[in-house]
Design goal:
Shape: globular
CATH class of the largest domain: Mainly Beta
Oligomer: single chain
Number of strands: 30
Radius of gyration: 21 Å
CATH superfamily of the largest domain: YVTN repeat-like/Quinoprotein amine dehydrogenase
Helix content: 10-25%
Strand order of the largest sheet: 2-3-4-5
CATH topology of the largest domain: Methylamine Dehydrogenase, Chain H
Strand content: 35-45%
Number of helices: 6
Structural class: mainly beta
Largest sheet: 4 strands, antiparallel
Distance between the termini: 41 Å
Number of domains: 2
């Protein structure tokens, strides 16, 4: 199974909502943390999630400073610019440029036709690169939003990075290809590697590090020549980070561990072991002694790189089981497959899907404040216990073609009735 498929499966199993009590209205993610970035001044952390939001956190207080909501799908990639502005990129194929404190993006960049999953910012701050599952890489001018498309990959492009001198761009894809794009012409040089590639990073000296679905890191020279490899684990590596000085590599795996690799010696120094959920994102803080990880459980953790131990409470915000009050309720147990995307109350932070508050009696795709698929807006369905039961009897793809909802069915009529009874009790408040 490719990492994209694993991401969709993992996302349907999440059951965690995070909340911070440090400030009013500051809520954590309700889905997998897919991307992390640290500001140039080291004061802020930016996280992107399957719940369609990005959050700017204060690294001094571990409190959320603001929640950024624009995308109609998962926020798969985030970045800071040198001037403090932020970039988010989503499954909706859009990139958004934000200024801290403003509720809407300053600029929206459009051109991709598939999910955008990776970003890179040139060292001079003038140019942005994006990698997409539309099989392309795009280079964007941050001055006017103009873009250039680089085509060469045959499958999803999963990672992109600028060389330190800004004269080349490297992309990797599920087609096992590593492309070195010589700038400004964009002339490609392609290297085929033994496994599908999920991420790429470039060290200060120009060495390229590519992460494979076979659990291996492969190092190449700036010209694409083989320069070594490291077995970082047995599970696919889905995220990479380099310390600022390039001496350490963090390789995050879908199996829930993160290998800390000394780049020069090509050796694994230690392995960070979390609660077993896939780790989808990693970033070093500028002190090179602290690593931050984002997991499929919606939690952001801090680690001491030298000891491999969690730092302090290690979590940003707090966590709670949103269904704890319904322990022993069969309908709540069935609903657990839905809680990653939907809340029962409109007072809870929005997740990837619309809230189910007031569900029964509501026409499909009519809830204000949520971006529904265009296909759903033309349907004449009113949600009732019967229509919800039918949705899960035949599956969302058959009952509501064009939906963004992950495909899942409930084969048992008893389970479907338990779910609709549960929703009738909990969503009418």
């Amino acid at each position: 199974m490719g990492w994209a498929s694993c991401a969709r499966v993992a996302a349907t199993l999440l059951e965690v909502v995070a909340a911070s009590a440090a400030h009013a209205q500051l809520a954590g993610h309700g889905g997998a943390v897919r991307a992390l970035a640290v500001s140039a001044d080291g004061d802020s952390l930016l996280s992107g999630s399957f719940d369609t939001s990005a959050i700017r956190w204060s690294l001094k207080t571990d409190a959320a400073g603001e929640v950024l909501r624009y995308h109609a799908g998962a926020v798969n990639a985030v970045a800071f610019l040198q001037d403090g502005r932020m970039i988010t990129a989503g499954a909706d194929a859009r990139l958004a440029v934000w200024t801290a404190g403003r509720p809407q993006p300053d600029q929206v960049l459009e051109g991709h036709t598939g999910p955008v999953v990776a970003l890179a910012v040139a060292s001079d701050g003038s140019t942005l690169a994006s990698a997409s599952w539309d099989h392309s890489v795009r280079l964007w001018s941050l001055a006017d939003g103009a873009s250039r498309e680089f085509e060469g990959h045959a499958q999803n492009v999963n990672g992109v990075a600028f060389a330190p001198d800004g004269m080349s761009l490297v992309s990797v894809g599920y087609d096992r290809a590593l492309c070195i794009w010589r700038l400004p012409e964009g002339r490609p040089e392609m290297v085929q590697l033994p496994a599908p590639l999920n991420a790429v990073a470039i060290a200060p000296g120009g060495e390229i590090v590519a992460a494979g679905a076979d659990g291996k890191l492969r190092m190449l020279t700036a010209d694409g020549e083989p320069a070594g490899e490291v077995a970082a684990g047995s599970a696919p590596i889905v995220a990479l980070a380099l310390s600022d000085d390039g001496t350490l590599i963090a390789a995050a795996g879908i199996g829930g561990t993160v290998a800390i690799v000394e780049r020069k010696s090509r050796s694994v120094l230690r392995t960070l072991v979390g609660p077993g959920f896939p780790v989808w994102s990693v970033v070093f803080l500028h002190d090179a002694a602290t690593l931050v990880t984002g997991g499929a459980d919606g939690k952001i953790r801090r680690w001491n790189v030298h000891t491999g131990e969690p730092v302090g409470s290690s979590l940003f915000g707090t966590s709670a089981d949103p269904l704890a009050a319904y322990a022993g309720d069969h309908g709540a147990d069935v609903f657990r497959a839905c809680v990653a995307c939907h809340t029962l109350s409109a007072k809870e932070p929005q997740r990837a899907g619309p809230t189910l508050a007031g569900l029964f009696g509501r026409k499909i795709a009519s809830l204000s404040g949520y971006r529904f698929s265009e296909a759903l807006k033309t349907m004449d369905i009113v949600w009732t216990p019967e229509t919800v039961a039918k949705l899960f009897e035949v599956g969302p793809n058959a009952y509501t073609p064009g939906t963004k909802m992950p495909e899942q069915r409930i084969g048992s009529a008893e389970d479907r009735r338990a779910l609709t009874d549960f929703l009738a009790r909990t969503t009418s408040r």
